[in-house]
Every structure is written in structure tokens, then in C-alpha cells.
Amino acid sequence: MFVNDMKMRDLNFTYRGIDKTTDVLSFPQNFSFYKGLQGGVLGDIIINPHKAGRQAKENGVSLQREISWLLIHGLLHLLGFDHEKNSYQAQKMRNLEKELLGIACR
């Protein structure tokens, strides 16, 4: 789902207690995935294209590339990766994001 800055700020505050907008949020739907889900819905990924556009400009990349990165980031969260646990997990997730982004943008 794509939402604007105001809606993303509301979601971020409601679900994370952080009163500012963000680029992407993930909401898992089916926790049985971790027990060998065979089909079904992993969850929702909410992307803020307005924030993504600002970040793309700052990073010197296209909006498409930035949104692709955010989609991959959100998907990895739904698969159980968490860059906020510690620096090892953060680096592991970042490396996987780069690998998957390289595949997605070929």
C-alpha cells in the first residue's frame, strides 16, 4: 500500500509510538509462516512514496530504485529479519537487501 506523509506518521505513531513519518512499515499477518507456512499472506507493506522521493534525491538514485529497496526491506521484516536487534543483524539484513536489489534491478 502507498500512503502519504500524514497517514504514515499516524501509522508510525499508532503502532510504534514514534510521532514522525517514515519510509516503510511492515505488518505481519500470518505468524504460522515461521512454522512452515504453505501459501497464504505474509503481511502488509506500507510505503510512503513522498518520503521515498526525498530519500531518492538525497541518495542520487531513481524513485523506482528507492521504492524497490523499501519493498525488499519490508519483505525481509515480514520474513523475520530485524535490523534493530543488533549491529550483526543490521549488517546481515543490509547485505541481503543489496543482493536482492541487485537481482531485482537487473
CATH homolog superfamily? Metalloproteases ("zincins"), catalytic domain
User: pLDDT under 50 segments (min length 5)?
Assistant: none
- The first-to-last residue Cα distance is 24 Å
Helix content, binned percent: 40-55%
Radius of gyration computed on alpha carbons: 14 Å
Q: Mind describing the biggest β-sheet?
A: 2 strands, antiparallel
CATH class annotation: Alpha Beta
* Structural classification: mainly alpha
Q: Which architecture name does CATH use?
A: 3-Layer(aba) Sandwich
User: Per the principal axes of the C-alpha atoms, what is the gross shape?
Assistant: globular
- The number of helical runs is 4
Biggest β-sheet: strands ordered side by side in the sheet: 1-2
Number of strands: 2
Keywords, separated by commas or semicolons:
106 residues; mainly alpha; two-stranded antiparallel sheet; 4 helices; 54% helix
Provide structural commentary:
This protein is mostly helical. The chain has one domain (5-104): Collagenase (Catalytic Domain) (3-Layer(aba) Sandwich), CATH 3.40.390.30. The protein has 4 helices and 2 strands. It has helices at residues 5-16, 49-59, 63-78, 87-104, and strands spanning 24-28, 43-47. A two-stranded antiparallel sheet has the order 1-2. The chain is globular. The two termini are 24 Å apart. The model has no long low-confidence stretch (mean pLDDT 88).
